[in-house]
Amino acid sequence: MSKKRTAHIISHTHWDREWYLPYEKHHMLLIQLMDTLLHTLERDPEFKSFYLDGQTIILEDYLQVRPEKKEQLEAYIREGRIHIGPWYILQDAFLTSSEANLRNLQIGHQDAARYGTIAKVGYFPDTFGNMGQAPQILRQAGIDNAMFGRGVKPTGFNNTVSDSDYESSFSELLWEGPDGSRVLGILFANWYCNGMEVPTDEKEAKEYWERKLADAEKYASTGELLFMNGCDHQPIQQDLSEAIRTARELFPDTDFVHSNVADYLQAVNRSLDRELSVVKGELRSQRTDGWSTLVNTASARIYLKQMNQQGQALLEKVAEPLASFAHLLGKEYPHHLFTYAWKTLMQNHPHDSICGCSVDEVHREMVTRFDKSRHVAETIVDDSKRVIADAVDTSVFARMGAEARPLVVFNTTGWARTGVVTVELDAERLYFRDGFPLDEMSRRMQALDVSGRTLVDAEGRAVPFTMQDLGLQFGYDLPDDKFRQPYMCRRISLTFEAQNVPALGISAYAWLKPADPASLPAADAASLLNGDRVMENALLRVEIAEDGSLAVTDKQTGRTFRDLGVYENTGDIGNEYMYKQPNGETALTTKGLKADIRVVEDTPYRATVEIVHEWSVPASGDAVFEQEKRELVYFPHRQGQRVKDMVPLTIRTQVSLSRSGRGVELQVSFNNQAKDHRLRALFPTDVETAVHRADSIFEIATRDNEPAAEWENPSNAQHQQAFVDVSGAGAGLTIANLGLQEYEVLRDGRNTIAVTLLRSVSELGDWGLFPTPEAQCLGEHTVRMEIIPHSGDGSASGAFAEAYSFQIPWTVCQTGVHGGPIASGYAPYRWEGGALAFSSMKVSEASGDLMLRWFNMEAAGTELELHSARGAESVYKSNVLEEAGALVSEEPSLSLPVGPYEIVTLGVKRK
């Protein structure tokens, strides 16, 4: 007699907070669903459980409107009838940063723990591809499974397949991360709605279950069959208990159970009696035709990605390390403010939000959330940097000259850093409280002489700088113990190159009238320009051709990369999800288009050349395309073209090279007045290699230049975080970006890196016609990139560290002349670690301990050396949830082995 099969029916909802309806309209549907759920649980004891989509924000959203339901809701959670967590929101994995993915997990766990239970489920039901490091992250969080809907093509047990990186024999598989961590993977092979709307009528139920059971058995490796009873915003099936009774009567050979995720996973583990396929690394649907991977959401509404990059970097790479530094000096760490700022930011991280694939109202509200989160982060930064700056001993500047105006430069990256910074200083202030008439305050401030001053470092060396007099300015203080204090001031702006500021540390400077100008060592005032088309420093030479393209020579290798920075324009008759170039269209480029080239900056620390292309592109898609949209023609099958009418597209590129720069920085601005098109920047590498590397989540992923044989889409665009890199023997090229998360390595014989700067489309796409005129992204845009040539090893050469540092803004704070416990050049910690990349410095809310995190960029193990400037401390190895682990050291210095691709978190407890 064959073993009895079990049908696990799991009630759930997949809750997109916002998508084809604005947030509040989805919100109202959620209130209705939750009310119905509580009513169903109350009246029907056979309705055993409900999975709340793995995201605790649903609880917040519901209780915001229904606070009186909290006690009832909490009771069902504690009884195990409502399962919550482990995430705060269901994020898009590739478009949110490494640390944002962890904050999502940490805050989801914190919120769920308040209700007494946390569903330990690696839940990614509709994530648009899955990150390769997910198995390691989940394992570190105590989760041994992952349930997901995209990224793997299953074949079912009737087919014989060889195991590979992207294919599984069954819907159950082993998913292995690059470090070797494994979790049990459950692929929703029949999607996460394969058990929705179960009939109660016997005739309908018989036909339904015959089909559904066969569909599940086609892919399942055991007799434990999964049926997800719910879908996107699906109402609760209130008669499910009756439907299950009907099914039991019709199919006595099947055990129908109103199950839950934990019970189902336990049953699968118990029943496994055969070897599962091992799927390794990223799950990106590479073994498909390439038309439905949704990868081009990486370029939909790029302005959102830019705002997100700014918000993430400000929180995790500036505010958290500065607040941690200030905490070490005695300031309270503002956990509550960080949680609020992160939650507000993460409300923009669900796939239909950050992917830019919703209706226009959704994305308007996102802009406000980005601003709100940024304002909180900026407040934390301002408070923290003042505490640190006031603790710096700046008394040395009093001996160097008169009227010293000290300032402190903060490097919150994980590497020592040199770069150009700009700071606004108040040369003098007059407060309203001092009783001066306004006209006298204005007169005195405007009469102030700001000439005859210089900038010096803490060693008394003159630092080349430029000054802009900003004139009379109004300002105010907000003291902790007084009413607001308005003032008038004379403000100036200084720009200079800060040299070798230590990682996670500071350097002090002062703008002053030197006591003995002749005694100051002369600063290097040589220009970086050789004519108006050549820039050169000790490491790089940049030559600009008549068409504005760049030839960048790496002086250390002698390799020249040519034709960099050509712009490409094509039509796009796709949608917010996917790019589709019109059939037979030839791409337009600026290759050979004469540009207007002029020098706009020539200082001892930086040179900048502006390149202007006066270009024209087709105005929009044609009438055929408009008709195809109305008829819901599937985008790969569209025959539309672009119109013949042209509109201007003026592209203004500022190319900058700093004296100590390891890369060439590009700032590109344009006013988009065209519709239905894509704009990219091209960077030919001429490096022979079959693979490239792209920054992803705690990983620099290696990807093939050629897609799999099943791939039919002419485009092979992919996701990136901070950079993409093409390297070969003796030479490599890294292109870093700020919020430009789509690239493609072209199959053009030159391995050209193409970075998408803009994609303009007119509809949401997916399951109907949802016009999105604002997705055309008309108006002004500015993007930033950095060209970083290197010796062929981006990790060992420091190119990747440069690309990561490019993501992080400098922080500067004016302070006074005073003593203090720390000196210029101080950093609380110093570390070395070969191929390690620094990721985070923050304070744990649970323990109050300082948490430091790195990840290994390479496949070989390495050694982390950590040195504390604060003396002996207890250091323990933690995990991604920042829980205490094994003691590592109780000395000021430690050495710790780090495995291949390992994410390592250390907790520091002050003795």
Automatic annotation (TrEMBL):
The keyword Cytoplasm does not apply. GO terms for biological process: mannose metabolic process; oligosaccharide catabolic process. This is Alpha-mannosidase. The keyword Hydrolase applies. SMART domains: Alpha-mann_mid. Pfam families: Alpha-mann_mid, Glyco_hydro38C2, Glyco_hydro_38, Glyco_hydro_38C, Glyco_hydro_38N. Keywords: Glycosidase, Hydrolase, Metal-binding. It comes from Paenibacillus tyrfis. Belongs to the glycosyl hydrolase 38 family. It comes from the Bacteria.
